[in-house]
Structure formats: structure tokens, C-alpha cells
Amino acid sequence: MDVDGEGVSAVATGDRTIPMHPGRHEAFHQFTQQKLPACKPVLTPAWVISIFLLMGTIFIPIGLVTLHASQSVVEVVDRYDIECIPEAFKSNKLGYIKDSSIPKNCSRFLKVYKRMKAPIYIYYQLDNYYQNHRRYVKSRNDQQLLHGLKYNGTSSCKPEQTNNGLPIVPCGLIAWSLFNDTYEFIRGASELTVNRKNIAWKSDRDHKFGKHVYPFNFQNGTLIGGGMLDPRIHLSDQEDLIVWMRTAALPTFRKLYGRIEEDLNADDVIVVNLMNNYNTYSFGGKKKLVLSTSSWLGGKNDFLGVAYISVGSSCIFVCFVFILLHMKNRRPYGGHNLFVLEQERHL
User: Mutual orientation of helices 303-328 and 45-71 as an angle, nearest 10°?
Assistant: First the structure.
């Protein structure tokens, strides 16, 4: 950097020296010396108290609204994995679920404690099921799901890649472990119709699962993992599979099974005839059936509302603490004092 009597005349960058326009000398000098004009807000106690008070008055009402929306959702939850085991197999649950000769049918009675407006969403919930395990998540091939047997690079699907020397479609542990419990719902003397269409994301149906890809050589091995797939239906219409293949991030999760398109009244008793096929006993998992309505915010989840209220309440609390501290240790903040403090800071 060369400096003349008026300031900087050139700047060296590596092997080159760049001459500077005389009009830029002063600006460049101010930039290098950090003397450019800048906004320097002075956070007085009044400003700090006002900001916290404003945040509190905004966050608390939002939290109350979202919490009310969550509380308006009606849920009926029933754990059935223990109750649906015959008394003779209570001490040998694994033997019961693995023995295909033992009937797996079971009936449960659900009482509706509050009116549920259609659509009523049917979920199955699994606990202690780690779909986010690295080896499990990687055991799939998205190109095969889209193109079928035309795509052969399925090494990521091991150990469910081939069977008897033939490729498996869909391959991988995720598809192999497809959930296969089934449910029927009866109210009074009539069976409730369950709509099982459009339970998967439209983007998944249209862009991730091929319309000309059909199951091939699936669940034909000696060890059956979960549900079967109809080889006559292409994958983009196998919505149970599409829902299952979107893996969960947490060990407790719910997946959509279907929808009931009619209202349920308070004190209605719903008879659920289910098939307890899926093995969660080998790893200490739990199975639950969930009937739920929805609100403008989605399903029942109090976390967002509680979080807003907690943050808003904390802001109000801090606001009052600052008010008390300011009243106890009041200091003069006139314009002259601010000017003096600013001048002293630059000395």
C-alpha cells in the first residue's frame, strides 16, 4: 500500500499494484480504519423493557390459540398388542406371533367419549421401533421403485436384494418389514366404510413409485418379514407400502391407515375386528390403534402451544425483572449524558 500526502494512492494485491482513484482515497482510509458511519443503537432500559413486553404480548396469545386448536382434536387410543394374545400364550408371545397356524383375529371395543366429526383418521402407532436406524434406512433403492427390473444396481438393498437368484421388487429391509395388521370397524349392526385411497403423499405416488412397476419375487424367502403385496397392482397404487416407506425419525410414530367418512357420536361403541399379524414382541415394541379428528393446525400436539406460552411468559417475567432493576438503580439518561458517554468511549 502506497500512501502520498493526500492518502492512499495504490493498493498492492499479490504481485500487482492497483492504482486508486483520488476520490476514493478518503473512503478507503475510513474503511480500513473502521471509521465509516454506522448505526449504533443505544439500548436504554425503556427499549429493552418494551421489546420483551412486546414479545410476551405477541407470543402468549398465539400460544393460547394453537393450544386451543390442539385441545379441540378428539382422539381415541387403544393399545392392543398385549390384550390380543390368547391366555395360553401370555408367557410365550414370540411363539404365538411366529406360529402361522394360530388364528390372529382379535376384537376390541372402543368408546367414543366426544363427538367426532368426519373425516376421522385411522392411524397405527408403533413404539420402540427404530425406523431411523442407519442400516435400515439405507436398505432400499429409489431407482428400482421408480423403474423396476430395468434397474439392477440394488446393492444397497442387502440382505433383501435377491432370492433364489432372482431380484426382489421392491427390495430392501424397509419394504420387507411392511406393517400388515388389518382393521374392520362396526358400529351397531353396520360396518363403517374405511377409505384407504389417498393416504400417501401425492408427490410420492406420482414421482417416486413407478406406474409400470409391479411386485416381483417379494416375500418368497424362508423368512417372512411383514405384509404381502398384490403382484397385479403397480407400486404407485400400493399406498400401504408408500406410507410405510416414508421412514419415521423417532422410535414412536404413527402412520395413516385410512379414513372414516362419517361422524361418530358421543357414547358410540365401535367394535374393531383386527388381525394381530405384525411382530413387535421380539424387540419389546408396542402397537396402538388411534382414531383422531383434525383441526386447522393438524393433529393433536400441544408442544407448539406450550412452547409459545412458555417463551411469552419468560419474556414477561424478564420484562418485570428489568423494570424492578431499573426502578431500584435508576440512572440519568439525558441527551447531554449520552453525548458525554459517547465522547468518552472514543477517547
Answer: 160
- Distance in angstroms (rounded) separating the CA atoms of residues 256 and 298: 13
DSSP 16-42: EEEE--GGGHHHHHHHHTT-S------
Beta-sheet strands, E only, within 193-343: 194-195, 253-260, 269-275, 286-292
- pLDDT tens digits, residue range 170-204? 999 999 999 999 999 999 889 999 999 999 999 99
Taking alpha carbons only, the member of 261, 262, 253 closest to residue 299 is 253
User: What angle (nearest 5°) sits at the alpha carbon of residue 256, between those of residues 255 and 257?
Assistant: 115
pLDDT category at 15 given cuts 50, 70, 90 is low
Q: Is the distance from CB of 122 to CB of 294 less than 8 angstroms?
A: no
Pairwise CA distance, residues 343 & 346, whole Å: 5
SS3 130: coil
Place of cell 439405507: 138
pTM over 0.90: no
